[in-house]
Design brief:
This is Putative carbohydrate binding domain protein. It comes from Rosellinia necatrix. By secondary structure, this protein is of the alpha+beta class. It has 5 domains: 117 residues, Immunoglobulin-like; 95 residues, Immunoglobulin-like (Sandwich); 92 residues, Sandwich (Immunoglobulin-like), CATH 2.60.40.180; 96 residues, Immunoglobulin-like, CATH 2.60.40; 355 residues, Phosphoenolpyruvate-binding domains (TIM Barrel, Alpha-Beta Barrel). 18% of the residues lie in helices and 33% in strands. It is built from 16 helices and 47 strands. Helix 5 runs parallel beside helix 8. The longest helix has 21 residues.
Length: 838
């Protein structure tokens, strides 16, 4: 095989804890390198390296996915990376691959690492063959069933293959040592199941050699399967989730919550006997119950629960007590219909009270006597003429048996949801990769905004003044094209601009380098000037400024008085871009002064633009708090974040931004790039993320934009999901949480088994060992319906989906794009207006 040549250097300003290895000049001795699907890379990194991430610099941009494995040794770390391309790609002379190295020291002589790079394309790498013989099916019911055989190398990289009984798999893999595992074999409804045994479980693959493995089956186990469908129930159950309990004769008990028009799939019940299916829910002191039975057999059985199956009984109990509600209001709009919604739910969610109460100062009482117990409390305000009026109450109340308990609710004007340049309804926008200039995917999704990173390197281009910014030009033009495609529906171009890049570490150098600050100020000015020139809209563009800046400084505990160069680089940039403006004396040579400088600069150069800063979950130190048990944590972390933002004056004074963007982490949950960095969210984690978002908005009194949210979905148990395609398919949970999916609903067993089997291998970041365990810890949950109806009440005015390597609506990334397009387009048939929502 011909050798691929390359040149790797250490990036600027490495530290003992962070650095970059930059690979360029990728070519053959006699010409360019073309990769059809996968670029394989092997190299050495410093010992103690904890993480490596790839930042590709390719022209044109490519939606690559990367799987990186680390094999630690005493003197170095062996790195293996597979970079998968969406289509054939030929490397250019300017292309680079930047490898971010965390906790590895590149400050000294790094030649051991820079000289170690080996690059191979597709099947042209030092490889051997693994021949895997699958035994015949142990039962005729399993003849057409599939299972997964997985080869895991010493660096932890997995290669998985789908197999059927009697098949022989031939796998071409790197030389080295591998552990072999095989999933059990089961039919579609899991009524017939066989465990597997693998021999040998550990092999060594030599170059051009063949290793042989056998997969055998254990005796089959037989079960029953039960599908329980809750139909379209009448009010008040139509908006609630029934508690359902299934008990078999042998004591096997399954419990779950189910919304309406939803089927829960129960598997591996006893193969014979009887099952009792009961449901119950008490709403406003009316108890709703149902009771049915089913004869179990070694097959799939269906049971439905509809209105005719449910009995209702009024609950009257002398121990129930009145619950006084004390209401305090500020100045509210003169509308007699202004009401807030109060909801109390018992700890097990089987007793619910829901009341709609007039937002009038004074004392009233809940409409029904309350069973003494502890309840979670949810108070929701209302929206009138674009203003969110928030109802605030304690998150929990214990209703005492002696009737002494009371609940206080305050209803206040929280924030204005209408933001310049965005529509007067909850809207969705998405990343554009600027590949399709016709905007086909964006048009299909009927987006209201599109976003892209400005400049050449997408992070401020601190090394030079740019002569032009084709990214900004192309984004503004594409927004106009999509608007035209949508018959004039406004589509706002949103640029992501850095005047300083604190996303990659070495923050002190970036904060103190006046020349870099000058260049990035100048390039931001250029982007704003181009947007004004190219746009014919009243609002030329939106700008998200300095991702990770606020979070990194909060994390590093920098004070507002931290000294740094501000006025001189700003004046130089203004002069270079020929902007006639005097820098105010209020802009000081401090961190707070720098923040003010950015705000002033936008309002001076692009007064017609709309803009906001960006924050992260990890500004408080790390983002792993999302997995903690304490329900009060999101609000506490939000308060710390808002306090820091306010200390810098980012949202006060004469040049207040229009909104705040809030990032989760730009990666799809079921990819290594996400869960390997601690971001794999089940419904509970997404709920806590949006609680954080809400608390930030209400404390700061600024409308917020969840940004770079992965729009990927959870595949169901009925879909064909292959382990070997997990990285390329970009499955995840963000889109399912936002838009809902009845195919997943409230049951873990509805999730594709290949997804549930994903091992979460960084326990210091995610305290669960698998996706299955993560979701079971999130129970009860219900993903049947979308979450977005609550978003305006969280202070959310728009959601921007996707990222450079994260699912949005463009079909070049992952397998969810078309689904997301359909969800947004359907939503746009009847968007949630900010005029009046009660």
């Amino acid at each position: 095989m011909p050798k691929i040549l390359s040149n790797t250097t250490v990036g600027n300003q490495p530290t003992p804890y962070y650095g970059t290895l930059i690979t360029g000049e990728i070519k053959y001795a006699d010409g360019p390198v073309t990769v059809q699907k996968v670029l394989h890379v092997r190299f050495l990194a410093p010992p103690k390296t904890s993480k490596i991430e790839l930042v590709p610099g390719l022209n044109p941009w490519q939606a690559v996915s990367t799987e990186i494995g680390l094999e630690p040794h005493e003197t170095n770390t062996k790195v293996t990376a597979d970079v998968t391309f969406p289509a054939s790609y030929t490397f250019n002379a300017s292309d680079i691959l930047t490898w971010d190295v965390s906790d590895g020291d590149l400050t000294g002589d790094a030649s051991e690492y820079t000289d170690s790079f080996e690059l191979y394309v597709d099947d042209e790498f030092p490889n051997g063959t693994v021949e895997i013989q699958i035994s015949d099916a142990p039962d005729s019911a399993l003849s057409d069933s599939t299972q997964t055989v997985t080869l895991t190398d010493a660096a932890g990289i997995k290669k998985s293959y789908s197999a059927t009984p009697g098949e022989t798999i031939t796998a071409t893999v790197w030389e080295g040592q591998y552990t072999i595992t095989a999933s059990e074999l089961a039919n579609a409804n899991e009524t017939v199941v066989s465990a597997t045994s693998v021999y040998p479980t550990n092999i060594t693959v030599e170059v051009d050699g063949t290793s042989r493995v056998t997969v055998d089956y254990e005796p089959v186990q037989r079960y029953s399967a039960l599908d329980v469908t809750v139909g379209g129930l009448s009010e008040p159950l139509s908006e609630e989730a029934l508690f359902v309990k299934v008990t078999a004769d042998d004591g096997d008990t399954r419990t779950f919550f189910s919304g309406t028009n939803h089927t829960t799939h129960l598997r591996r019940l006893p193969p014979a006997g009887r099952a009792i299916i009961s449901s119950e829910l008490t709403v406003n002191n009316t108890k709703y119950t149902s009771l049915q039975s089913a004869n179990l057999s070694n097959t799939l059985i269906s049971v439905s629960i509809g209105d005719s199956d449910i009995d209702s009984t009024d609950v009257t109990d002398p121990t129930f007590v009145e619950l006084p509600i004390s209401i305090q209001t500020g100045e509210l709009p003169p509308d007699a219909n202004n009401t807030f919604t109060l909801r109390l739910a018992s700890a097990d969610s089987t007793v619910i009270y829901v009341d709609h109460i007039a937002a009038t100062s004074g004392t009233t009482k809940l409409g029904w006597p309350v069973k003494p117990d502890t309840y979670t409390v949810n108070a929701r305000g209302f929206i009138e003429d674009g203003i969110l009026y928030d109802a605030q109450a304690a998150s929990e109340i214990t209703v005492a048996a002696d009737g002494s308990s009371s609940l206080s609710v305050s209803v206040v004007e929280a924030l204005v949801l209408r933001v310049r340049g965005f529509p007067d309804y909850l809207s969705f926008g998405a990343l554009t990769n600027l590949v399709d200039t016709t905007g086909k995917d964006l048009t299909a999704a009927r987006v209201s905004s599109i976003f892209a990173y400005a400049g050449f390197d997408g992070a401020g281009d601190a090394d030079r003044y740019l002569d032009d910014d084709t990214q900004t030009t192309a984004t503004v033009k594409l927004a106009a094209q999509v608007s035209e495609n949508l018959n004039g529906q406004p589509v706002l171009p949103v640029m992501v601009n850095y005047t300083i890049n604190l996303s990659l570490g070495d923050n002190e150098t970036h904060l103190q380098n006046a020349e870099w600050l000058e260049h990035s100020f100048g390039n931001f000015i250029l982007s704003m000037q181009i947007a004004r020139r190219e746009s014919s809209s009243e609002v030329s563009a939106g700008f998200i400024v300095n991702p990770d800046f606020l979070g990194a400084n909060q994390q590093d505990k920098r004070q507002p008085t931290y000294a740094m160069p501000v006025a001189a680089p700003l004046r130089a940039a203004l002069a270079t871009r020929k902007v006639d403006a005097t820098v105010p004396d209020t802009i000081t040579e401090t961190l707070a002064g720098y923040v003010l400088a950015v705000n002033w600069l936008v309002r001076t150069v692009a007064p017609d633009a709309t803009f906001g800063w960006q924050i992260n979950l990890w500004g408080v130190g790390a983002g792993e708090w999302i997995y903690e048990a304490d329900e009060g944590v999101p609000a506490d972390k939000a308060k710390l974040t808002v306090d820091y933002i306010q200390s810098l004056g980012a949202y006060s004074g004469d040049y207040v931004p229009d909104f705040l963007a809030i990032d989760r982490y730009e990666a799809d949950d079921f990819t290594v790039r996400a869960y390997g960095n601690g971001y794999c969210y089940a419904p509970r984690q997404w709920r806590r993320y949006y609680q954080f978002v809400q608390a930030v908005a209400l404390n700061l009194k600024i409308p917020v934009m969840p940004w770079q949210i992965p729009a990927s979905r959870i595949p169901s148990v009925s879909e064909d999901v292959k382990v070997e395609n997990l990285e390329a398919d970009h499955w995840g949970t963000g889109g399912t949480y936002i838009f809902g999916d009845p195919a997943i609903g409230s049951e873990v067993s509805n999730i594709n088994g290949t997804i549930l089997d994903i091992a979460l291998t960084v326990p210091t970041l995610i305290p669960y060992d698998s996706v299955d365990a993560l979701f079971r810890a999130s129970e009860p949950f219900d993903l049947t319906k979308p979450a977005y109806p609550d978003f305006p009440f969280f202070g959310i005015f728009t959601v921007l989906l996707g990222g450079g390597s994260t699912t949005g609506v463009v079909t070049g990334i992952g397998s969810t794009g078309v689904w997301t397009q359909q969800q947004i387009s359907k939503y746009m048939d009847d968007p949630i207006s900010f005029d009046s929502v009660h």
